[in-house]
Design a protein that fits this description.
Layout (H helix, E strand, L loop, with lengths): L1 H8 L6 H41 L23 E4 L20 H16 L4 H11 L4 E9 L4 E10 L12 E8 L1 E7 L10 E9 L3 H4 L3 E8 L7 E9 L9 E6 L12 E9 L4 E10 L12 E9 L2 E7 L10 E9 L8 E9 L7 E8 L5 H12 L5 E6 L3
Antiparallel strand pairs: 1-6, 2-3, 2-9, 3-6, 4-5, 4-7, 7-8, 10-11, 10-17, 11-14, 12-13, 12-15, 15-16
Helix pairs in contact: 2-3
Length: 404
């Protein structure tokens, strides 16, 4: 102690405070190096586990669907038939799937580095899958198999889980459309499950008269939609699976995550129409003139369009008119006029909804696009409405882009 005090008091020697600060800095650097090494090791371990967990999402269920217990005679000729669910038959579930145990150290590091891992770069496949899962579109369970003796493909739509709410009430009215692509003209549909985000359908669909050589060239496409009685059905999500990647010798059951629907993109075409307002007669004449470059809704690369015109007052449907159907025509000429009685004092609360539809004999008609005409629509629609008011008793024509 005496010699230490003497050293500290000698000229040119560092002070006691300087030595204390140097010791603290040395210890801090050592701890930092150790922690950095630990975090780097933990991040690699967790990154590997995170990638493995992503790779397991959306893989086919290992269980097999139960075989049919009920013989169903259906008309031949390559038709797709919807049958009732088999009584007492329950689909295989994945509720018993095992999860990897975690250590307490991993849980602690995971809680400390989760944000860093979410921002760390990964493969394009992982990022794409992660982006789909963040949209919370839910998932669907279905089975598929082929009967070689009867040349029949069987598709069972079982259930869906965690569907997003599409209605203002915080729920949805889901149903499923089934296609065998590239054929989109002939589609089948399940029943609508009212106000249900975890619907159970348990419906069986038979595609008869399909040789196996043609079946393996098709893609099973499922589209989940939210049913709307008065407007266009809202798409929820879709699943597609090439049948040449499936062992069709017996029924197989799959769980698949729903992906965003891709059929809503691209141009839907344009519609030329005229409006004529007669204030003395309290009426508006809507003339549907023609359309151009309509979106092809059928597998043959065409559509069978017709136009519906709804008169709305304060969000209530008052009257509906529609044109004739133009077969296989993406540039139809209609030239049909419809008169609607609208008192002048109700004009500001009036909306005219024009919907271009694709006619389908075997299933629900498809919406190609819509136009909303009123005081409070889009810029082009409002301009047409104001021009109609400013030029009474004169037809005012304008092209409109169809919207989803």
């Amino acid at each position: 102690l005496y010699r230490s005090d003497l050293y500290l008091s000698s000229p040119g020697a560092p002070s006691r405070d300087v030595l204390l600060v140097s010791a603290i800095i040395t210890v801090s650097l050592s701890v930092t190096v150790v922690l950095c090494g630990l975090c780097h090791w933990c991040q690699r371990k967790l990154g590997k586990r995170y990638k493995n967990s992503l790779e397991t999402v959306g893989t086919p269920d290992s269980g097999r669907g139960r075989s049919e217990k009920k013989a169903i005679k259906l008309p031949a000729g390559g038709k797709a038939v919807n049958t009732a669910p088999v009584p007492g038959q329950t689909p295989h579930d994945e509720s018993d799937r095992r999860t990897e145990p975690r250590s307490s150290v991993s849980d602690l590091v995971n809680s400390l580095t989760s944000e860093m891992l979410m921002l760390s770069p990964g493969s394009e496949e992982d990022e794409a899958h992660e982006g789909c899962s963040r949209e919370n579109l839910g998932r669907i369970q279905f089975s598929v198999g082929y009967n070689f003796q009867e040349s029949t493909l069987t598709v069972k739509i079982m259930k869906a889980q965690e569907l997003p709410a599409k209605d203002f009430s915080g729920t949805s009215d889901p149903f499923v459309k089934i296609y065998l692509l590239p054929d989109k003209k002939h589609k089948l549909e399940t029943k609508v499950k009212r106000k249900n985000l975890n619907p159970h359908w348990n419906e069986t669909f038979l595609f008869e008269g399909f040789p196996y050589e043609k079946v393996v060239q098709r893609i099973l496409y499922l589209q989940v939609l939210d049913y709307d009685r008065f407007s266009r059905n809202d798409p929820i999500g879709e699943v597609s699976i090439p049948l040449n990647k499936v062992d069709l010798t017996q029924m197989q059951t799959f769980w698949k995550d729903l992906k965003p629907c891709s059929d809503g993109s691209g141009s839907r075409g344009e519609l030329l129409l005229s409006l004529c307002y007669n204030p003395s007669a309290n009426s508006i004449i809507v003339n549907i003139i023609k359309a151009r470059n309509l979106k092809a809704m059928d597998i043959g690369g065409t559509s069978d369009p017709y136009v519906k015109v709804w008169l709305m007052y304060k969000d209530k449907r008052v009257e509906k008119k529609k044109t004739v159907t133009m077969k296989r025509n993406l540039n139809p000429i209609f030239n049909e006029s419809f008169a609607f009685d609208i008192p002048t004092e109700k004009l500001r609360e009036t909306t005219i909804i024009i919907t271009v539809m694709d006619k389908d004999r075997l299933s629900r008609n498809d919406v190609i696009g819509k136009i909303y005409l009123s005081w409070k629509s889009g810029p082009g629609e409002v301009k047409h409405w104001k021009d109609m008011i400013a030029r009474p008793r004169q037809p005012v024509a304008q092209w409109h882009q169809l919207k989803a």
